[in-house]
Amino acid sequence: MKNTQEFNNRNVSENGYYLVDIADYPTDGWGKFKRVVQRTFRGELFVGLWVVLREMIKFDIHTIQYPQEKMPIGPRYRAVHEMKRLWESDAERCIGCGLCEKICISNCIKMDTRIDEHSRKEVSEYTINLGRCIFCGYCAEVCPELAITHGGEYEQASEQREHFVDYSYMLTPLDKMKAGTQVEFEGFGAITPHEDERVKKTPLAY
Amino acid sequence: MSKITINIDGKEVQTQEGEYILNAARANDIFIPAICYLTRCSPTLACRICLVEADGKQVYACNAKAKEGMNIVTSTPTIESERRAIMEVYDVNHPLQCGVCDQSGECELQNYTLEIGVDSQSYAIKDVDRSSHDWGHLHYDPGLCIVCERCVTACKDMIGDNSLKTIARGADALDAEYKENMPKDAYAMWNKLNKSVIGLTNGTDVLDCTSCGECAAVCPVGALVDTDFMYKSNAWELKQIPATCGHCSAGCQISYDVKHTSIENPENKIYRVMNEWNYVSLCGAGRYGFDYENRVSAKDEAAFANAIEAFKKADTIAFTSTITNEEAFLLQKMKEKFGYKLVNNEAKAFQTFLNNYSEISGTKLYGSDLKVTHNSNFVISVGTALKSDNPNARYALNNSMTVNKGAGLYFHPVSDPIIEGLGKSIMSVKHAPLQEEAVMYLILDLFADKSKLSSDLVAYLASFHSTKTITVTESVKEKVVEMVKEMKKNEETGEEEEVEVEKSTMVTKEVSKEVEVDENALFALLNADAKFKEDLDKNLNKKDAFSLIVGPDFYTHPNAKNLARLVALVEKYSDFEVVMIPALTNSLGVALICELDDAKGKFTVGYNTQADFTLSALGDGDLDMPAINQQEGTLTSINKRVNPTNAALEYKGYELNDIANALGLKADNVIDYTAKLPLSAGFKAAEFDSLPNRYENDGTEVRGYILENVAVKMSDDETVQMYNNVKLEGTVVYVANPVRQFTAFTNKTTALSQEGGIYMSEEFLGKSDLNEGDSVRIKSSNGELVVKIISDNKITGDIALLPTYDSKINPEVITGAYRFAVASIEKV
Hints:
The structure holds two protein chains of two kinds. Chain A contains eight helices and five strands; from the N terminus they run H-H-H-E-H-E-E-H-E-E-H-H-H. Chain A has helices at 4-8, 29-41, 44-58, 99-103, 138-142, 167-170, 174-178, 195-198, and strands spanning 81-83, 109-115, 121-129, 148-150, 164-166. In chain A, the strands form two sheets. Chain A has a three-stranded antiparallel sheet. Chain A has a two-stranded antiparallel sheet with strand order 1-4. In chain B, helix 10 (325-338) links the parallel strand 14 (316-319) and strand 15.
């Protein structure tokens, strides 16, 4: 901790701090009266009014008209979960390993699995209780298939504390896949750049 | 076996002479990696990872025996490099699908790969097609298989089905350069591994065995899994409830793995049964027959009121032995307080048998247990259809033969290909029903110390013997000397010349001889074949630990009293250790706790048996009761051990204790009675919650407590009745279940549910005009019954089996008390 020195020195004058020029508080009744009169007739109110009027005429408004308008969300934002599909086949990425369910610290993920007609493991049901979810991102981080990720959908007001979303709600719709607009998550759990260079290669005999 | 001291990694360790180093280390909490070794089975030597250095020499810890003063080092740089190479080899071409593997992290391949720190791969070989197989109740994925052969070993050495073997993989040979560069043992292990996968011995693609599922339990990876469990749940989600299996008297330790049923249904459900497979082996009923719970939605107050009414009216309680000790004790208390008659014919027969046995033996209980049978090397089974009466006794018999180089004798009227398949050293003797006394006399004759037996009995046994002159052909080796002409080089002249040489050859000659031999009439009485004596003598060579398994046929035998006395004589005057198979789960406990009556009174309340008012854990009675997997309590096993079991699933209805409380007894929980079980019968005053249920690392069973074998008054009278040659002849039916069935409880489970019928061997059906599926009327002097024919390839011969597991079929209608009866079988 090299830099803590300067913060520990609380000697104001040495650090370029200066005291704001504030007049002493009036102590008697007359003094207080004078301050009220001064403040009332100085016209500071009109300064503020002028700024508002000026900006109104300029029509350069920065207010986001929520909910009609929304701010763009960063790619690492952790809002309601999404279930991704494979680019190659449009098949679901989730293999039903259950790691998200295991790692979830608020116990809000539950899944049922079964064997499907191709003898593969299939997720028959999958729910997340958003009322319990703390959006920590562990599920996305632990997912070995980049299947469960966080999305940008942060609106999840509900009439009840329990608010479940199921698998089909989170899964990327097929038309979105056809249009190629599925967005990859870039937060924790995503592949880091130069991953290939860091992997130890396994020899192959083919 | 004497105690010795060895030194492992600088730690002084006490062990038995002749114990494997690996077991000695494990017993003392010293870690030696090992994959293919199974405790209680013979070493397989497939993985070679248990390599250690003993006195400077590399040995495999799983098959090197400890010697006094041995110095063992578990890790050296050479050993480490071998282990690392072995683990790398195991990882070659292993699919990276751990996420969907049913082993879900409980994987020894994963554990050892991480333990040894394999972080890169140096070996490669082209993979071959290894697609998965559905073997019926098991699913085999050779892609995941590491060919440790643990399944094969368990099936051969423990279970005795011999259903699995290694078959050719059809892979390319290993690259020649590996032989040069790889660590030696790793190469040898890979060379073997690369040549094999696991296959079935019966040549088909479907298992035809006793379906115990032990192979899947011992699989260190997810290669062998139960088909029903596939992809249902990850191991870490399942909560393990330690329990005791409630199906038969073996009282195996199991754990019920429970989890909520589904997202919609939060009620717990049993997903599978697991066992400590190093120390206990389950049968198919224990492993797959787990969901026999009685689900009730709430307390049925009306039915409960009716039950109280019925109890007030009743003078008899009839029950079966599939109850806990505490419930049995509760029934006994109710008898004492309200004067009910307690009727349980099966337990009564066993109780009487034990009492008769005690008169000569002087102890309340038989002296031995199945652990002793496991460790013996000559086992006799008599009076029991071993594979279905108590599968664990069958495992003990098989294990004693495979691991201790033992031999066995199986006396039973129903010939059993499973028992015969255990190995060459088991001799089956198919005697006629009712001839069990002859078997006991034969055992006395062959093995008892005649100097101690009463003179009457010695004289009686001698009366079976006679001398006979027979002609035997013996092969004798004779030396024949011949003069042969040979060409030989003369060393002086260097020329070839003919020389006469004397040559002797050994010639085998057949010589006929007349000899006087002793003939034992008992052999003929029991239908033992001509070579019986000769084979028996061969099998008895070098045997020193003898065990006798006595089964339920004895208890209901018309001459049960005499048989009990004979069993006691065998135990007393021969080297045999005796164990008796209680017919049902807790027959022994019931026999010890309850005073049983013979006949029912006017109004009977039945517990798990149909009566005027029926309490039933099967859900088919007038008031529901909890099944054994929904109850806390203790069960008394064949090993004379009082084992605790826990409730795996919730039960929302009334139980027996509620009725007892309503009638005026007082206990918050039925387990309050655990500490009050009768001390005079050998129980201990131990609270239920203090009873352990586990195995130690050295295999010590720390479960419940062992019953004290209370001494009882002996009578000096050791006389036994003469044998009378009454036997059942003609078409005989026998009361026995097929494998994996014991009671209506096993039949209630999803995996084992089936419709009962009469089980006939393929041989029997082939000879008659009957076919599988035909309805037949079985008629005996007792009554008649119409059932369907089921073809059973697990029996041979002419005796048909009537099962007890289907509550729609009551075999006692035909047979009465004794398990055999003569009956006619006609097509309807």
